[in-house]
Amino acid sequence: MDATTDKDPLVQEQIYNALCYLGEAEPEEILNSCDEYLRQHDKLAYPHRVIILKAMETVVKNNISLLDKSTAKEVIRDWQQAASSVLVAVGQRFINKVMEEVLTKFQPGILPHYFVMETFANLSVSNGE
């Protein structure tokens, strides 16, 4: 997974494809490996983190019926946390665009998802003047 930091888009695409391919054979193993890698490399640049997150998303979507309930629950929570962190990081430069997107998740009469609220709060903290 270290190769995700390669600047060549073809190498990045190959890493994504390899993770997805391996995820077809061993979805839980790949999801756990990706999760562990992201935890160990919390300073990984966000464009590279996104490659791994997208691979995780694809593995989950393609193998949802095969996943153990506890694995699915843990992966979804971790994936949502990582996605929230990506939005907060991007929001440090493009706050208006990120806020515009986050605000679309607020619907009248519907309680927003936990991670929408957390993202909103972390955006405000990271952009406080």
UniProtKB/TrEMBL annotation:
Q: List each copy of the MROH2B-like N-terminal HEAT-repeats domain by range.
A: 19-127
One annotated Gene Ontology cellular component of this protein: cytoplasm
One Pfam short name? HEAT_MROH2B_1st
Coiled-coil residues are: none
Which InterPro entries does the entry link to?
A: Maestro_heat-like_prot, MROH2B-like_N_HEAT
This protein is called: MROH1 protein
* Organism name: Rhinopomastus cyanomelas
Gene of this entry? Mroh1_1
